[in-house]
Amino acid sequence: MSASGLTTGDFTEETEPYALFGSWLSDAEKSEVNDPNAVALATVDEHGLPNVRMVLLKGYDPKGFVFYTNFESQKGREILGQKKAAMCFHWKSLRRQVRLRGEVEVVSDEEADVYYASRARGSRIGAWASKQSRPLEGRFALEKAVAEYTARYAIGDIPRPPYWSGFRIKPVSIEFWHDRQFRLHDRVEFRRAEPDGPWEKVRMYP
Fold first, then answer.
1. CA dist., res. 149 & res. 135, Å (int)
2. CATH number of the domain that 51 lies in?
3. Which one-letter DSSP state was computed for residue 158?
């Protein structure tokens, strides 16, 4: 029995990573106090320097892992420039971690529209008002922009900004890590040569 109360057999015998990820995320939704879908997103800029920040996973399936952002933000520009990214989920209460990396594609307009429409009205206004990752002369300037867009879209639908959409990471590697005593952790990596290729499962030294 591991520290989280689950046996190692709960995942080391799995042969398909997306079902396993779904099971772990479901466990996290029961145990994590805040944002079980929070994930560290790593990108690289035009100089080869890495950046990392927290985002929220908004969807996943065998096609990949989806999140949404302003494409004019730092992460948006870096992903559009390199078309590669990595993620790391860490659920402290479960003593589990999932890492993945791969190529990135832009989600369809239909997907982005559906998710954007599901957001709170204030969040949709914020997508218009925030020049994300760019210098802000003061809080008042942001509040003024929010007021201007609130007035502009006081009635009716709020359209999705043309620079706001989603990215899908199509992983070529997904690693599952589970804490065990004396740092003799369980690590299983699913890897493939191409984003649409078959998975190979490899057990790793901790």
1. 19
2. 2.30.110.10
3. -
Q: Does the pTM of the predicted model rise above 0.85?
A: yes
Tokens of 77: 């520009």
- Confirm whether 149 is domain-assigned: no
Domain that holds residue 70: 9-116+163-204
**Distance in angstroms (rounded) separating the CA atoms of residues 34 and 202:** 32
Number of alpha carbons in the 13 Å side-chain half-sphere of residue 115: 19
Q: What would the pLDDT profile of 152-173 be if each residue is shown by its tens digit?
A: 999 999 999 999 999 999 999 9
What is the rounded distance in angstroms from the CA atom of residue 5 to the CA atom of residue 9?
A: 12
Q: Tell me if 130 sits within 8 A of 76, measured CB to CB.
A: no
Instruction: Tell me the C-alpha distance between 200 and 22, whole Å.
Output: 19
Catalytically annotated residues? 183
pLDDT tens for 21-53 read 999 999 999 999 899 999 999 999 999 999 999
For residue 200, the cross-strand partners are 191
Q: Nearest-CA neighbor of 104 among 127, 81, 88?
A: 81
Residue 140 lies in a domain: no
Q: Is residue 52 assigned to a domain?
A: yes
* Number of CB atoms found within 10 A of residue 38's CB: 15
Instruction: Provide the number of structural domains found in the chain.
Output: 1
Q: How far apart are CA 198 and CA 194, in angstroms?
A: 8
